[in-house]
Amino acid sequence: MTGLDLEQEIGKMARAMMARNTAIGDALIAYLRTQLTEEEVAGIVLVSLERLLWLDGDLFIWTLQNFLPQSILNEMRRITSVTLCKQLIGKKFILGEDFSVNANGQLLLNPKAKKAIFPNLKSSELSPVRSI
Questions:
Q1: What residues make up the domain containing 98?
Q2: Same domain membership, residue 89 and residue 48
Q3: Cβ(98)–Cβ(56) under 8 Å?
Q4: What DSSP letter does each residue of 47-95 carry, written as one string?
Q5: pLDDT in tens, 67-92
Q6: What are 62's strand-pairing partners?
Q7: Same domain, yes or no: 63 and 123
Q8: pTM exceeds 0.85 for this model
Q9: pLDDT for 25-63, tens place per residue?
């Protein structure tokens, strides 16, 4: 798949999300799974969600709750956990001390690590992020 093809698939996915049409989303994800790995499909979904977040925060939440199959959500969690762990290690945080990942793939952060990942959020806004 070329860069142009990927851009077109990201656009299709974002439009299906904006239409709140789960049938189109299911069909598109099924098609993409024939062409790409689960990780690559999850990557397309992540980029589509990022675009959606800029347009409509409520629709972003709806999409996470209603639109995506669990296997894609699990792969997205894995991708983001690995990426965040790499960022924290790069910032000299210690796995198992400053942060960890539980059996469900949830990233657990101490207050210092939370602040490093979410520097612009107030402490009250950080409360939904799991702590260790």
A1: 78-132
A2: no
A3: no
A4: HHHHHHHHH-HHHHHHIIIIIS-HHHHHHHHHHHHHHHHHHHHHTT--B
A5: 999 999 999 988 988 899 999 999 99
A6: none
A7: no
A8: no
A9: 999 999 999 999 999 999 999 999 999 988 998 999 999
